[in-house]
Amino acid sequence: MMGKTLDIAKIRKDFPLLETKVYGKDLVYLDNGATTQKPFAVLEALDAYYKDYNSNVHRGVHILSQKATSAYEESRKKVAAYINAAHSYEVIYTKGTTDAINLVASTFGRKYLKEGDSILISAMEHHSNIVPWQMICEERGATLKVIPMDKEGVLQLDLLPSLLDERVKLVSFTYVSNSLGTVNPVREIIRQAHARNIPVMIDAAQAVQHFPIDVQELDVDFMAFSGHKLYGPTGIGVLYGKEKWLNDLPPYQGGGDMIKTVTFEKTIYNELPYKFEAGTPDISGAIGLGVAIDYVNSIGLENIQAAEQQLVTYALAKLAEIEGIRFIGNAPERSSAISFLLEGIHPYDLGELLDKQGIAIRTGHHCTEPVMDFFEIPGTCRASFAFYNTTAEVDVLVAGIKRAAAILI
Ligand code: PMP
Fold first, then answer.
1. pTM of the model
2. Catalytic residue among 22, 325, 367, 408
3. Which atom of ligand 1 approaches the CA of 178 most closely?
4. If one looks up domain 8-30+300-408 in CATH, what number appears?
5. For domain 43-297, is the CATH number 3.40.640.10?
6. Strands 362-364 and 380-384, how do they pair?
């Protein structure tokens, strides 16, 4: 993968929080899988919305409302272009990935799941791509089935044909695992599911910020992601759905904006995308997400991918030199998260000692308890990278781990 070399020192100046000191030390922020830092452009867009044209959308004829509506809808077009959706009305704003998956689980489940049916997910799902399906399966008398993985953290695709039987009504799985870093073979899974007329949902929460995704080329039916992991604000996310599915499914929530007409006898629902956007939406969040996408585009997603791949390769090599380290997840296709354990040290203890050195990593089960159960571990330490991280920060992490190990062992 070729990418233009990025001027990381210059880029870092766009992110005010990266300048922060913690415990008097330079912050080394390696928890980008949990959430990314925000560039000035996004912060300024939020500020400008509230200062200059705060107003509700789709409601007023007055100039402020028109301005807010137009910014909100322009942002939708940016999201659609970013994932190459055929139509901007196939982009539904949600609160985030979790909300988007719940939307599909609830609406698809209510319409299509019957007793004896099943939903197929994978062994490495985030809780947000397990629990919503479990809930609707329980309600409808359906079962949740799982594509297993091996000890490297790779899905066992040889088992997929036998799992995709006629009872499976939908397949939902993550593009990139947040706890293992595995990049899953989405094209192959979609191909096999579609060959049996089974729709597919992708959890792209750990994917959209790292490499280009073309929903038309993938031919995916639904895709979810969160703005806050894509350098945008919290509280905003996206559900992409093919027009035919979004028209076919019932609304998720009822309320303002999602209706055309209401009488006490009957409500006529609004057209897409508003049918799925009941109530006042996160207007500033949507606008901020659009600006975050502009920012990412200005750097270039291919350049971001190349820079992050280099960083991860460097980090894997440097971390591997640490005595007693064990990587959890060794898939050949991987993205920006590295999970590891140090022999004899609880991940929480290591995380705490790293924190005191100004290094922010994540410790715990990463909302993937079944993954931890599979590896029979309480949790992992996870360093997750963004393009604004540097090899110097990797060196600080490695030195920090060695220092912590010297204290703890
Ligand atoms: N799926 C994956 C793979 C994730 O990493 C996350 C966030 N950790 C989510 C879903 C949930 O995202 P959110 O909390 O933004 O809804």
1. 0.98
2. 367
3. 5
4. 3.90.1150.10
5. yes
6. antiparallel
